Amino acid sequence: MIGSEVNFAELLTPTYTAPNIRRYLGGAWSMHLPFAWDLVRELQPRILVELGVYKGESYFGFCQSVEENKLTTLCYGVDTWQGDPQTGMYGPEIGQEVEAYNVRYSRFSRLLKMTFEDALSQFGAGSIDLLHIDGAHRYDSSQKNTREKTSRCSICLSHHASQCPFEIRS
Ligand SMILES: C[S@@+](CC[C@H](N)C(=O)[O-])C[C@H]1O[C@@H](n2cnc3c(N)ncnc32)[C@H](O)[C@@H]1O
Q: Of these four, 41, 49, 114, 163, which has the most CB atoms within 10 Å of its CB?
């Protein structure tokens, strides 16, 4: 069910001291959400971009950290909300639910309903401090332009890095 939320607190052990993740959907990013929260707190990115939002599990994990740590980060979530060969194609209800959920973060979060290619053209060179690439999990034209958009001290998160032919800068 779209947006069904497990109470993250019920999964916690007595020794868990990390944040209580609000939007826990049991997806691929679920157990990385405390990491996402910590990463944003430590990096304090000026601009955060996620390519591939889907139901927003990872994206809203980043947003929760921006809010709770009172950061000035601007967040942009990019997706057509139509799906892709790996995720599968899906209807408009997922994008609509994500848009409604995003209202709570409207101070700093914008959803860009468009292709990665079109969205990247809207960002200046060297402007993105934290980039999460979570699209079709293959290197294609949409991801070739990401490198020039990231800042010198940026961090890029990506799945299946062995398929990514561009070098990782230090
Ligand atoms: C694996 S899902 C994202 C998962 C999400 N980050 C999460 O935490 O659950 C990939 C998403 O990327 C989107 N996508 C794939 N290729 C795209 C492209 N070229 N432009 C825009 N969206 C794209 C799909 O619509 C899909 O919703």
A: 49
